[in-house]
Structures are given as structure tokens and as C-alpha cells.
Structure of Diaminobutyrate--2-oxoglutarate transaminase:
Amino acid sequence: MTTPDTTIFETRESQVRSYCREWPAVFDTAQGVHQFTEDGKRYVDFFSGAGALNYGHNNPELKKYLVEYLGGDHVVHSLDTYTVAKREFLQTFQDLILTPRNLDYKVQFPGPTGTNAVETALKIARKCTGRSDVVSFTNAFHGMTLGSLAVTGNSMKRAGAGTPLYHSNTAPYDDYFDGETADFMWLDRTWSDSGSGLDIPAAVIVETVQGEGGLKAARTVWLRELQALCRRHGVLLIVDDVQAGCGRTGRFFSFEEAGLEPDIVCLSKSISGYGLPMSLTLMRPELDQWEPGEHNGTFRGHNPAFVTATAALKTYWADDALEQNIAARAEQLRDGLQRIIARTEGASLRGRGLLTGVAFADTEVAGKIQAAAFERGLLVETSGPSSEVVKVMPALTITEAEMAEGLEILVDAASAVLHPSASTSARAIPTVTEDTEREPALAAS
């Protein structure tokens, strides 16, 4: 195997880089669920750009609209001026996503990333309620800017702020006490008692599945109780659907299964459909109390992202074909992961839909499996406060055969770490030749 030239990265790029340390390869091209290095080695991608590539790499059904748009010299950068691309996205989002779900939200384009969506949600919640505090949950992750970091649980991320993080309180997430119900009696009591020393917050922010926090998935009953608690006390409910949304857990919004109607919703990552920077903050119309220009940003009108987002909605959300594939592949994924769990004491299944993984009692195991998987041609990351979870997040368009290929690699990697005497040796990573076909991402039929 040729050693890639990484000199310029190591000498010039900041030490903050992380994923490249786990995957020491130089990638060049990508199609569907595969990435290819500069010397042609193929990797099955069970990472999907941290959830930004729900429809696979360079999805041909989306790429053709992007190429046509760019080739026609249409507006690329527009701030918040009106454009044809933005109009088509808003109309499509209303017709295919909001209206069928009986959801009435104003749509704000706050900036290019998930943390922009969260910062906007926190800011409008405080503006509308006149209150300062926001309640978040143990092991939550909501972003890396100061406001979103204040409602994030990870101590290492929080320490990077270099300043105290204010106006947030932490409550136990569902199952935080290992099987004991984490109910809301404490919050209910303190919010009702003027002598508790705790003010009623502006909002509660929650992930239905904690993507970075260890793939814990909240029960629907817990989520409904949380919403009821917020309604009783006039506290706004924010659902951070940056990673779990856009179909990742089965339906377009991760909160649909629980029947929630959040006051504010944060979307990013795969909302553009193609990996282009884009985020949305959705809010009930009465919460849209901004003065013109009171909250803005330069990259809140990236029209190529509007184009691919519209194409993704029309291609994959006009019918239920994609949802059916997600359900089938999620079952296949769970079955595959159970092969690891069945042979490993203390391992357990985590997550929901195609945001699923295995938690290990030994916190060193997941990282070793990740490394062994990379050696065998699979990209997979870890999750959790101690990186104790192997996190599987393939494209939603993945086929049965592609899922089976990736799972075989993952099971073998796990066996090599957990049961080395029974494991096969690391497989040779396929190299692209003239006879090797690169399969594009599949469009919904």
C-alpha cells in the first residue's frame, strides 16, 4: 500500500483536525456509498459526512440540477434577496414536508451550519419569552459556538470555549440512570415553586437521538411528557434535528414518531441534499418576532444549496419509497450489529433508524474497531462521552448488497478486536481499475 503524501496537512493545517487522524488516507473521488483515495483504493462509507450526505456522495439525481444551475450563470450568492432558487425551495418544502404533516412554521435561513441554526433558535426563544436560561440534557451536543456550546454536555468541547458558559441548566436525558426512568418531577416542581431558586427557562432544547452523545434514543413517551411539561409552564420546546432529521431515523423529522409539535426546529447537514452548507431554523409564526436585519449572516442565501435541496425533496420525499428503504436497511443493520453484540459481554444496541450503533462496556473497544474497520476498507466513527460507541450512519439510499458488504467488514473488524483467534486477516482494500465500476447513489423509484 502506497503511503499517501500528507506533508502539507501536517505542517500547515491546524492541530485541531481530527477525522484525518482516524482515517490516514487522501481521498479524491466519491460516488454513492463509496469513497476512493487518490491511488484508487475503495472504502465503504458508513459515516456519510457526519450525516451531511444522506443521499450518498455525488448523487446523480441531484448533481444534474446543480450542474445545470451553475452552467446557466444563475445567482450563487444572494444574502437574503429574493431568487428563483429560494422560491422553488420554499414552495417545495411547504408542499412536500410541512403541509402533509400539518406543520405551520416560518423558515429562517440563519447561516451555513448546524450551530447557526441552534444559535438562532436560542436567540429567538430568549427574545420572545424575555427569559435567559435554556435547559439542555446530559450528553447533548448542539454545536461549537458559545451559545450552542453552553447547551452541550461534552466537557472537552466545553473546555475549548476558554470562558464561562452562561444561561444554561442541565437535566438528565432519558435512561441516564441506566434503566431508571429520568422523569421530569424535578423540573416540574422547581418551575412551579417561586422559592426553588431556579427561574422558568426560555426553552428546552433536545435531540430525539443523541448523535454525538452516544446514540441514546429517547422513548416516545418521554418526549411526549417533555412537551407536556413545556406546555404547562410556557417554556418553548426546541428540537435539534440537525443530525437525526432529514430521514436519518426513518421519517423526515425525527420527532414525528412521537407526535411532537415543537415550537422551534433546527435543521442542517443533509437539508441541502448534496453536502452543501445550508441550515434552517423553523419556528411557529407567532415566534417570528425579529426586526428586519436583527439577526443576519453573509452565507444565508447559498443558492446552489437551495437547488440541490429542492431536488432532494422532489426526488425522495414525494412518495414513501425512501422511507421504505430506510426501514428495510435499518432492520438489516440491527441484525448485523446483533452479530457483534451476541458475542460480546456488556455490548448493547443504541440509536434508531440508520443512526444506530453498538455501545461497549470497555471504552477502548470502539476506537480499536474503528481502526480495524479502516484497515479493511470501511469508514465508521465513534460516539459517546468516552468514544465507547461504534456509530453506523450510512447513506439512506444504500442498497441491500452495499449494506451487507459494509456489515461484513464491520463484523470482521469487531471479531479481530474482540476475538482475535477467530478472526480472518484484514481483507485487501479494492483498488479501482478499468474493470472496477463505481456505482452511483440510487434514486428513489
Summary: The CA atoms of residues 110 and 120 lie 7 Å apart. Residues 321-341 form the longest helix (21 residues). The domain at 74-316 is CATH 3.40.640.10 (Aspartate Aminotransferase; domain 2).
